[in-house]
Amino acid sequence: MSCPMRSALEDIGQDGSHLGNEAGMLYGEYLMLDKLLSAQRMLSAESSKTVHDEHLFIVTHQAYELWFKQIIFEVDSVRSMLNVEGLDEGHTMEILKRMNRVVLILKLLVDQVMILETMTPLDFMDFRQYLRPASGFQSLQFRLLENKLGLKQALRVKYNQNYQTVFGDDPEAMEALKKSEEEPALLALIERWLERTPGLNTHGFNFWGKFQAVVDKVLAEDIEEAMREPHEEVRRHRLQDIENRREIYRSIFDPAVHDALRSRGERRLSHKALQAPNSAYGYGQSYHQMAIQSRDNGPASTLSDRYKVFLDLFNLSTFLLPRSLIPPLDDGMKRDLNLTWGEPVKENERNSQNGLENSNL
């Protein structure tokens, strides 16, 4: 593997003969490797018996913290781009790139666990006593990341409700946590951005009016087919399944049902914001792509859905329809969603699209 710092000039010597004072910083100086590589303090080595696996444990967790720092750097930059009035839609590709970078880092962190698993529980117990009361729950950056993404305090599990107390003796940490709780989280900023999606209003294109009509038609056809089932028990089961599906769709058609689910913590986004990624799902929009990138971010948890910051985006596929049934876009919507890729649409054709000239991006 070639060195990432290798010069593009093939004739530069590798023996240092061309690196005088005028060459600037060297690799180790730029990366401050003297500090980085001397930061692995093995507590077991300070006792009578050095435990070999403690070094792996330290390096692994330091790598996690370095990657957390990069994730926060990327998330903060995305929040900054989104936290403006009248977002320039030209920035969405850069936002997508940075969000995708975060997703890949998170996947890398998951894979990193396999390296740590080469250390057995008994190997860990050989040096565990030196670490007390230290715990991964005390990671300040992880808590900051949770807040910056949008994890609500009420959704934290009981033993984690007062997560700030462990940092009580560190005023800088407490101030950073307070700031992360007060600033607009990524979830809130994406919600605001999604609410601006064209075509959600009842006037103009009215995607959801069309979508609901298709759903009603599909369910009615399914009922007719179920009623032709000769076996009563099978027929009853199929009809109940159709009613269950109707209730699922009702939760996105009826704002009151959606708000009730949101009050119980079963939904995260506003009703209008949730409609946006659903409407764009079938059109391959950057709206959908950004939603998916956001979905793949956030603290993963085996506890429950409560720690999924972008829970609504995880569940998008619940409301999918066959591609052939998705309402086709008209020219006005294509322009508003940047689908025409520069293809001209006559102005009088645009103005004829049920008042779409008043739609608000």
From TrEMBL:
The keyword Heme applies. GO terms for biological process: L-tryptophan catabolic process to acetyl-CoA; L-tryptophan catabolic process to kynurenine. Its EC number is 1.13.11.11. It comes from the Eukaryota. The keyword Iron applies. Keywords: Dioxygenase, Heme, Iron, Metal-binding, Oxidoreductase, Tryptophan catabolism. Pathway: Amino-acid degradation; L-tryptophan degradation via kynurenine pathway; L-kynurenine from L-tryptophan: step 1/2. InterPro entries: Trp/Indoleamine_2_3_dOase-like, Trp_2_3_dOase. It catalyses: L-tryptophan + O2 = N-formyl-L-kynurenine. This is tryptophan 2,3-dioxygenase.
